[in-house]
Structure formats: C-alpha cells, structure tokens
Fold this sequence. Notes:
The protein is mainly alpha-helical. Helix content is 85%, strand content 0%. It has two domains: 1-39; 43-260, no CATH class. The protein contains nine helices and no strands.
Amino acid sequence: MSATIISAIRALGRLVLRTLAGLGQVVLFAGSTLTHIVRPPFYPREFFSALMNVGYLSLPVVGLTAIFTGAALALQIYSGGSRFNAPEVVPQIVAIGMVRELGPVLVGLMIAARVTSSIAAELATMKVTEQIDALVTLSTAPLKYLVMPRVLAGILAGPILVAVADSIGIFGGFAVATQILGFNSTTYILNTINFLTGEDIISSLAKGAAFGFIATLMGCYFGLNSGRGAQGVGAATKSSVQAAAVLILTANLLLTAVFFTA
C-alpha cells in the first residue's frame, strides 16, 4: 500500500481510539456520579440551587418552544391529512407526536442549550481560578459537592419539564385546531385523552429523566476536564453542548426502540 493510504489508516485508527477512550472516561465518570448520589454526605443547598437553575428557570424557554411546536404541528398535520381526506386525525397525531417524541427531545435540547453550557462554563471557570483545588484542599470532594447535586437535579427536573412541555404543546395544537381549523373543542379533547396510553406517558417521562441526566452530566464532565485559560472555558462549553445534543438524540432512538418495538 502507498504511504498515503497507510497514513490515512493510522489517522482513522487514532481517531477511533481517542473516541473510545473518551467514551470510556464518560462512562466511568457517570458511574462514579451515580454511586455518589446514594452515599452521604449530601448538600441540600447546592441541590435546590441546581434544581432551580435546571427546572424552574428553564420553564419559559421550554413553554415557548412547546406551544409553538404544538401549534405548527397541528397546522402541518391538518395540511397533510387533507391530502388523504383525513384531517380529523389532528388531535391524535399532535398528542402522540408531542408526548412520544417532540416533547422529550425538545426539552432535552433546550436543557443542553441552556443548562449544559451554563454548568460547563461555571465549573470550567472554577477550575481555571483554582476554586476546585481549594475544595480538595478543604477535604471536599468536587464530584460530591459540584457534580452530584446538578446531576440529581437534572434527573428530577427532566420529567417535570417534559410533562409541562407535553401539556403546553398539546394545548398549542388545541388552540390552533379549535380557533383556526374549526375543530370542536370537546371532541378534540376526548380524542386526545382516548388516544394516549399509559405507556406513552411513561416513556415520555423516562426520556425526560434520561435526557436531564445526560445534559447535566456532560456539563459537569467537560467543565471539570476543561483546559486552562479563557480558551479552555470556551472549548469546554462548546464541547459539552455538542456532546449532550448528540447523546440525547442517540438515547432517544434507543429508548424509542426499547418502548415501542417490543
């Protein structure tokens, strides 16, 4: 083989090895974080502060995203259904689309955009300014004090945000369908309630918990492993959002396969 081909193979091999090593480090970090969740000491003040940041402060962007998505989805389904003389499927498809897929995924991506970047920048800045070294000097484990409260907040806030997004998204579709498309409000609500199942709701909430875990974990991982200086903080923030978004979409596919391809 020519030197060019050998060089390309070597470059590909190095990329694969770096990727596998990075995944291994993330898995070990996630396992260590989960073990710390159930072991004392606990820091309730840090936890409630993280819960406020991850959950409550994310409500405006999640609500706006969900209501506009639900409204647009109703219009698209009505337009597409009219081609097959089936515009009456709007409430059913809006409900299943928001609950099974769009609600959880949009919440996950919004958390990645707002919370993951914030956590990564905060922890990377703490590392640059040697605040994390100070915690170690004071015999306080950074994983316990900084990571565990944020990850636990993500796990608990994720399903709540998804439930809110699902409800608001369905309401957005309801508003468009009844006020613009001429649907009867009572019939629309009954069709929505009758079409959704417990499995749909459980899968939606489970995805919310998984996506919240991924988003906060990636922010903590890249923040604690950032480089030095302002450039390191920026790189950690960018990498955390990219990794969180890719992992959320990958996890969505895997969870969908688990719940709906039995």
